[in-house]
Amino acid sequence: MKHSKVRKETILLKESLDRIIASDIVSNVNIPNSNRAAMDGYAVIAEDTFGSSENNPVILEVVGKVRIGEIPSIIGGPRKAIGVATGSNIPKGTDAVVMIEYTKVEKNNLHIVKPVVPWQNVSKIGEDVNKRQVVVKKGIRTTPQDIGILAALGYKKVTVMKKPRVAAISTGDELIDPGEIQKDAKIYDINRHMTMASIIKMGGEPYDLGIVKDNYVDIEKRLKKAIAKADIVTISAGTSVGEKDIVPSVLDSLSGKNDLIHGVSLRPGYPTGLVVIDGKPIISLPGYPVSNAVAFRVFLRPLISYLLETEENIDYSVKAKLSRRVANIGGLRTFVRVRLFIDQDKWIAEPIMASGAGVISSLTGANALLIIPEDKEGIDEGDEVEVILLRPLKARKNG
Amino acid sequence: MKHSKVRKETILLKESLDRIIASDIVSNVNIPNSNRAAMDGYAVIAEDTFGSSENNPVILEVVGKVRIGEIPSIIGGPRKAIGVATGSNIPKGTDAVVMIEYTKVEKNNLHIVKPVVPWQNVSKIGEDVNKRQVVVKKGIRTTPQDIGILAALGYKKVTVMKKPRVAAISTGDELIDPGEIQKDAKIYDINRHMTMASIIKMGGEPYDLGIVKDNYVDIEKRLKKAIAKADIVTISAGTSVGEKDIVPSVLDSLSGKNDLIHGVSLRPGYPTGLVVIDGKPIISLPGYPVSNAVAFRVFLRPLISYLLETEENIDYSVKAKLSRRVANIGGLRTFVRVRLFIDQDKWIAEPIMASGAGVISSLTGANALLIIPEDKEGIDEGDEVEVILLRPLKARKNG
Prior knowledge:
Two copies of one chain form a homodimer. By secondary structure, chain A is α/β, with parallel strands linked by helices. Chain A has four domains: about 50 residues, Molybdopterin biosynthesis moea protein, domain 2 (Alpha-Beta Complex), CATH 3.90.105.10; about 90 residues, Molybdopterin biosynthesis moea protein, domain 3 (Molybdopterin biosynthesis moeA protein, domain 3); about 140 residues, MoaB/Mog-like domain (Molybdenum Cofactor Biosythetic Enzyme, Chain A, 3-Layer(aba) Sandwich); about 70 residues, Beta-clip (Beta Barrel). In chain A, about 20% of the residues lie in helices and about 30% in strands. Chain A contains six helices and 28 strands. In chain A, strands 7-4-6-5-9-8 form a six-stranded mixed sheet, with no helix packed on it.
């Protein structure tokens, strides 16, 4: 594939949550950026405190105080103590902080009852983060902690991967969009709307190219527009696919090489088409919404991640006991929708058998997905399986 | 708390991903909205096919064809067959579909070699979703599937919970914002930026009220503004908290009842303050970023979910083996940052011991959180624990 385009952009830090970091970010500051008091107390020369005890306190002269956020104008020295608070810079000429708990002040005299060693109770310059250290890595999807860290380093802006633009087209004479009035035997398009939401979820930018009627010329025109303007193109058949399967022939012709792959070892999701035209991957997604969602997962998600240059998985999974055997057809990778529930503090995964018509009900009924690999004939009742969550589970405990 | 305000809004479906559904959504259509062919073939009266076989086919007259998306103008009847495709309406006067595989056409004569029973290969009206059935429930956070379902029902807009407006204030003379030039001993604010990102993550709308200097009048003024304009108020101390702890006294005075709770049984996160003023919850978050993040998790997240009227947990967790014992102080709920890694196909959780200064490094180093409840003295090395993920893990297998 061609990737000549600049695929990065610099955006405001506050708008960068859940974006993919475009390159390793190194600190250009030390944290702390100066030696700082780690405790409230007095900055001293450690050696001056040696031998001090409750019975035999060392007495130093308090010569001043450093506020948080200011560069100390005062300088320490032998037999001198300077008041500091947690986080304030310690003055030149001092090398340790005596905690306030081990001191008593009488007039300008500081009584110290416990010795400190050099650099005790001091956060040394660069101790937390060193200048030039990589703090946020390329390819991560930013969390609130990452935003906090980048703020700490002084970044107002951050360079992230551009959102890949993914075109979404639906085809079908019977399709209308939500908001349109349903007449004749028209049905509302599901696939394109689901696909566009999945594109957003993955970190892409959906490019809505609407519904096209089932005719060669219109489909070809819309596909050409998509290929010209998007990074990836998806085209879905309607939910009802009959004799009018024009998309594959248009794709084959546009590719100029008849190199369309049509039909993949996936269940559901077999009638998926894959081809690259002008360096742009085109995926024709099956008409049945459940197949459509599975094909998106298998083909679109890795493609979007590839363009985002991230290896991060946005899937979360749990281990569960399978409530009954599910069979697999050899050579196919099968995606079984399951309903997770708790029984005696264990997760149980109940396979949902959707009849052909149970499109919507099976989309709402499942909250997780079990993947059976190509080389397995099935999974037995009672086996432990790892299932991928399709939506967050309700909270089970405090925290 | 007062909740007189309208807390719902109606937005475009395509902008509703990850929003909280405001009330049960019922279907106002049947899906399918008419009896439809579930297979490509011929709509017939089932009874006409009884007794048919390879050797003794039934012969019916083909009287027409129904296209997908059209209301059949043709009507079926005894000894008649009408061509249909998967998804097309079946005509009046027919009650079953014979699959094309079991037919042969000669001129206008259809030879049927296998009988069908009434309603075979037909998706009956409302079979998938019935009018008035609840299809998407109040309180869920919308996934791409939910968007697909709502599209299928014809919804162009959807009513979701308004994002609670959560004010974020930081206090500290030493703080500056990213983008400002770092001079003197100023340090960049971490907490407010992390908090605002966490608010977005939870589904709230951050209301940035900036940095306030450590003085009573300014803090009071900023808090009053926050209370007037936000649903929830957070106020963070800077990373360095010394003698100047003005926020609690301002809050106590504003509440008028001295009912500020200050200090909670949380580690880290002890110096959290909680109070309700004018019906608005105010949380003063600790200065240390790690404590700040824990206090946000414990107090802000449930508050935001409460205003969103959702029970959904956005946490994902995995089970792991603890690499070494962690102790707990009785009566405190302790949050231990851990680093998860794979060893021999098992997750190991390695506790990260952060020294006082390791603020940033511990934020970046941890990818999960172990919660030790108040009544536990610790967790032993090798014990299985459930840890909450702080960021997605890298993909481990195909799927």
